[in-house]
Amino acid sequence: MDVTIFHNPRCGTSRNTLALIRAAGVAPRVVEYLATPPTRAELAGLGARSGLPLRDLVRSKETLFAELGLDDPAVGDAALLEAMVANPILINRPLVVTPKGVRLCRPAELVHEIL
Q1: Domain spans of the chain?
Q2: Which residues, 6+ apart, have CB-to-CB distance to 78 below 8 Å?
Q3: What is the pLDDT, as a whole number, of residue 104?
């Protein structure tokens, strides 16, 4: 099975999700998105395929989220995408891509839905 995880090794949920994927016998492609961030088009595609509002893919717990004014509900998807491309730390994690879809795996167990 072709599986990609957008991973932050410092994040416990991301590490747990990766472990669940491997425990299922899958060797995923691991993208450490802080070092190799997705493009604007890739992020938009991940958002569309996840079925979630783009705002759900932004990591609102990051200090930068409020500093950039992204906590204002009037900020649209284009501005959110630009902020995530410019500041990959704002990308919520882990995002997992399989032939069955895209999931933001928070909690980690959500990965089972697409394996």
Answers
A1: 4-114
A2: none
A3: 97
